[in-house]
Amino acid sequence: MGKTDVILKQKIDNLGNPGDLVSVSAGYARNYLLPKNLCVLAGKEELAALEVRKEQIRKKALKEQEHLATLARTLSDLLLRVPVKTGENGKLFGSVTTMHLADLLAQKEIRVDKKQLHIESPIRELGEYVVSVNLGHSLHASLKIEVVSE
Predict the structure, then answer these.
(1) For a Cys-Cys bond, which of 3, 49, 108, 123 suits 96, CB 3.0-4.6 Å?
(2) Nearest to 134 by CA among 118, 111, 122
């Protein structure tokens, strides 16, 4: 079995990031990576273009990092009011979920995936809470929420 040098087009777990030059088995490249358009074979022209692509990827990653830092500041400064239906003694019918929070943030034109939100323990009572938001690239924000009765 021979090895083939390829340049990755996107992040592949346990293999590399976009623009990385990696050596993989010929069968893996031929049967999986190339048909799914996840890489290109590393020829002379591709290697020359790799440096240009790496610079573009670096600039794009830097721009995304700046966007995420701005989003982290926005989330940390925000107090999100969460209206819920309650019964007697301020007990909620059900609990506040990450999907509920993601929808409320989307209404404020803040795009956060529900998988990025982490609620420590189920929220089943009125009051103020802090929700952790994992934005990726080692960036985290603390979103303050206030659960209020409708």
Answers:
(1) 123
(2) 118
